[in-house]
């Protein structure tokens, strides 16, 4: 099993990853469109997220509109909603499980139970990282494809916003944390398979006494 300091480092990465996952899911700036007119007063910034669309004016006004209809949304936004929520749930489960299985805590029972808990938490982190990486990659691909499309006017083109970058970084943190937890448990189990505990067999005194008694009968 890995050292307590390495597990603690992985746990901190998982915390940052889970917090970033939740933040990226709720932020409205998955894609940003900055349309600046001839007058600075007419400058606006339009942001689109998974749950709402927001518009910020240079005058200081800020307005948001929630996306109530799910079926009217594009497929990649529906998939991003589902996978990001699953990523947040799995990362929360992973934090709870690894808290029990970490070497520096007094929870979880014996060493084998804590090792299994760490492995389960690591699997949750890896799945959370994958679920967070898929929607951000798909969303970025759609933004780039729309940006390079010559048939779309310049005013309707968007660029990746801060939420996309936050999702990428959070997914990387979760993947690294999951690999550390799973690898530590795998090394421990592999060592137990390669070097099995030696079993000492001591002859039974009763068998020796019985054998001696039988020999005397034949003398």
Automatic annotation (TrEMBL):
Subcellular location: Cell junction, Tight junction; Cell membrane
An annotated GO cellular component: bicellular tight junction
Keywords from the named record: Cell junction, Cell membrane, Membrane, Signal, Tight junction, Transmembrane, Transmembrane helix
UniProt-listed PROSITE patterns: CLAUDIN
UniProt keyword annotation of Cell membrane present: yes
Position of the signal peptide: 1-24
Keyword Protein transport listed: no
Domain of life from the UniProt record: Eukaryota
GO MF assignments: structural molecule activity
Similarity comment text for this entry: Belongs to the claudin family.
Reported function: Claudins function as major constituents of the tight junction complexes that regulate the permeability of epithelia.
PANTHER family: CLAUDIN
Protein name: Claudin
Organism: Cepphus grylle (Black guillemot)
């Amino acid at each position: 099993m890995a050292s307590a300091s390495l597990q603690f480092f992985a746990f901190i990465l998982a915390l940052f990853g889970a917090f970033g996952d939740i933040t990226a899911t709720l932020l409205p700036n998955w894609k940003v469109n900055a349309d600046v007119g001839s007058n600075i007063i007419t400058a606006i910034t339009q942001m689109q997220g998974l749950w709402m669309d927001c518009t910020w004016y240079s005058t200081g006004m800020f307005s948001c509109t929630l996306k109530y209809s799910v079926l009217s949304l594009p497929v990649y936004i529906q998939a991003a909603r589902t996978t990001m929520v699953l990523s947040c749930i799995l990362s929360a489960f992973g934090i709870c499980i690894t808290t029990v299985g970490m070497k520096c805590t007094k929870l979880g029972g014996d060493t084998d139970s804590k090792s299994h808990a760490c492995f389960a938490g690591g699997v949750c982190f890896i799945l959370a990282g994958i679920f967070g990486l898929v929607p951000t990659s798909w969303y970025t691909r759609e933004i780039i494809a729309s940006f390079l499309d010559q048939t779309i006017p310049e005013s309707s083109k968007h660029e990746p916003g801060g939420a996309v970058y936050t999702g990428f970084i959070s997914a990387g943190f979760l993947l690294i944390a999951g690999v550390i937890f799973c690898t530590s448990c795998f090394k421990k189990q592999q060592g137990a398979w390669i070097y099995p505990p030696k079993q000492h067999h001591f002859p039974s005194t009763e068998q020796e006494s019985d054998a001696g008694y039988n020999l005397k009968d034949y003398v």
